Amino acid sequence: YLVRFYQKRHRFANIPPGPKPWPVVGNFVIRRRFGPEADGSSKNAASVLTELAKLYGPVYSIYAGRQLIVILNGYKVVKEALSSHPEVFSDRPDIPAISIMTKRKADKISGIVFAPYGPVWREHRKFCHTTLRSFGLGRLSLEPCIMDGLSNVKTELLRLDAESGGTGVNPAPVISNAVSNVICSLVLGHRFDHRDQEFRSMLRLMDRGLEICVNSPAVLINVFPLLYHLPFGVFSELRQVERDITAFLKRFIANHLETLDPDNPRDLTDMYLMEISARRAAGEVDGGFTEDYLFYIIGDLFIAGTDTTANSVLWIILYMASFPDIQDKVQAEIDEVVGTLRTPSLSDKGKLPFTEAAIMEVQRLTAVVPLAIPHMTSETIEFGGYTIPKGTVVLPNLWSVHRDPNEWDDPDSFDPTRFLDEAGKLLRKECFIPFGIGRRVCMGEQLAKMELFLTTTTLLQAFEVRLPEGVPAPPLHGRFGLTLAPCPYTVCINPRR
Ligand code: HEM
């Protein structure tokens, strides 16, 4: 191991600098150097990695085990890598835990999020992207579905607030249900009642699966893949969770196959099944469009589209409650433009600049996917004055981009007006990239923006959200898992009329 490790260091003597790795584990213990947050919790990984850039420069390296990882910090280098050298920086690494679960082999790749950069990924991404767009604009429009879900959210929040006796509501489960239901409608053509037991247990399973993968000894599967097969503890629990989710999704696909009506596609699953038939009819033998592949695409959309959007909404609610003066201004704008006689709609987008600026400012400060999804170099490249070997894992540090002092004045302060010009019009800033940048940019960006806009405007039109009195204000640094989530909090929900 040591011989291979030092051979690698020597072969590319000019690899980016970085902290000295420990044998076997690499730089796993790096966080300890930076101490805890003010409330005693450990610093989030992205902010630790941003601090390291002050020591080693915007392009530096660390090791996870013997895997070389290069961290890109600040807008200039992230843009340079992902936009100017997309052919080199758009591959995904083979993460053992993911590969085992998605049955990834050299000749068989699955899904979109972790699929290697290449023709199969490209075709699937194009197909899903086009289909998602048609849901935003076409006859399968998702707006009524989102609004329907929000009407449940309002009722539930009010009910829970009344039951809380003034201590406030934890909005997380209600928001998470609504967001998951949007993905369900999109891919499965089915909206679940929020009390539906099967749906609730499916959400619990997904949460548990992610929790095990990110915050349990199961992360060691990435270093010792055979651990996945251990017959006890979190390892066997992970396999059970995987089996249950598989059974749930396969049931839906089977049901779609039985009831598919090509003249009336209900959802992305129907469209995909029709695409398989069309390709088979055209004589395509194995272009990658298969029912097996569909299964992983559905899984990807759930994983990529639920936690990210739900946490963004939860951050927006928390910031609005923590900055009541900003909330007041958002509400004044909604009252003026939308009024009280109707609920907000997508046609209001573009007419509520302060509200949109507030949403963007929360997204900037919280960078819900702070390190994007790991990229990998598909060939050796000279970059930023260093050599980055082929097969290096690359983490674009979006958190550092959103707090880059070269791009933002007073980057740590919460100030929506930075997204407005002097006339109060919305400014598009290139260095605002919560959805990433380049070929691997988020595929659900339009859908997510639609959800964030409708949710924020609908909830703030109806309610004033306030932090409960006598309870310490929740911290704004968040918990780092697969995404950056706010620490659990409660808010009081006061109807505005
Ligand atoms: C990838 C952010 C919502 C589907 C990503 C990436 C980011 C991101 C940063 C990684 C980009 C990279 O690797 O460089 C977000 C945020 C969201 C959100 C902040 C919500 C506010 C969604 C939704 C969907 C979705 C709703 C689907 C319906 C995807 C997919 C990828 C992705 C499929 C992988 C793209 C690829 O590898 O080609 N997202 N996302 N995301 N996102 Fe999102």
From TrEMBL:
Localization recorded for this chain is:
Endoplasmic reticulum membrane; Microsome membrane; Mitochondrion inner membrane
Instruction: Give, as one word, the top-level EC class.
Output: oxidoreductase
Q: What cofactor does this protein call for?
A: heme
According to its UniProt record, the EC number is: 1.14.14.80
Tell whether S-adenosyl-L-methionine is among the UniProt keywords. no
What's its membrane topology? Multi-pass membrane protein
List, alphabetically, the InterPro entries matched.
Cyt_P450, Cyt_P450_CS, Cyt_P450_E_grp-I, Cyt_P450_E_grp-I_CYP2D-like, Cyt_P450_sf, Cytochrome_P450_fam2
Write the record's keywords in alphabetical order, separated by commas.
Endoplasmic reticulum, Heme, Iron, Lipid metabolism, Membrane, Metal-binding, Microsome, Mitochondrion, Mitochondrion inner membrane, Monooxygenase, Oxidoreductase, Transmembrane, Transmembrane helix
* Listed SUPFAM superfamilies: Cytochrome P450
Which GO MF terms does the UniProt record name? heme binding; iron ion binding; long-chain fatty acid omega-hydroxylase activity; steroid hydroxylase activity
Any GO CC annotation of this UniProt entry:
endoplasmic reticulum membrane
The main location class comes to endoplasmic reticulum
Binding-site list for heme: C442
Is the Transferase keyword given for this protein? no
Q: Name one GO biological process term.
A: organic acid metabolic process
Q: Which reaction does it catalyse?
A: (5Z,8Z,11Z,14Z)-eicosatetraenoate + reduced [NADPH--hemoprotein reductase] + O2 = 20-hydroxy-(5Z,8Z,11Z,14Z)-eicosatetraenoate + oxidized [NADPH--hemoprotein reductase] + H2O + H(+); (5Z,8Z,11Z,14Z)-eicosatetraenoate + reduced [NADPH--hemoprotein reductase] + O2 = 19-hydroxy-(5Z,8Z,11Z,14Z)-eicosatetraenoate + oxidized [NADPH--hemoprotein reductase] + H2O + H(+); N-[(5Z,8Z,11Z,14Z)-eicosatetraenoyl]-serotonin + reduced [NADPH--hemoprotein reductase] + O2 = 2-oxo-N-[(5Z,8Z,11Z,14Z)-eicosatetraenoyl]-serotonin + oxidized [NADPH--hemoprotein reductase] + H2O + H(+); an omega-methyl-long-chain fatty acid + reduced [NADPH--hemoprotein reductase] + O2 = an omega-hydroxy-long-chain fatty acid + oxidized [NADPH--hemoprotein reductase] + H2O + H(+)
Family note: Belongs to the cytochrome P450 family.
Describe its function.
A cytochrome P450 monooxygenase involved in the metabolism of arachidonic acid and its conjugates. Mechanistically, uses molecular oxygen inserting one oxygen atom into a substrate, and reducing the second into a water molecule, with two electrons provided by NADPH via cytochrome P450 reductase (CPR; NADPH-ferrihemoprotein reductase). Acts as an omega and omega-1 hydroxylase for arachidonic acid and possibly for other long chain fatty acids. May modulate the arachidonic acid signaling pathway and play a role in other fatty acid signaling processes.
Q: What is this protein called?
A: Cytochrome P450 2U1
Q: Which organism is it from?
A: Tetraodon nigroviridis (Spotted green pufferfish)
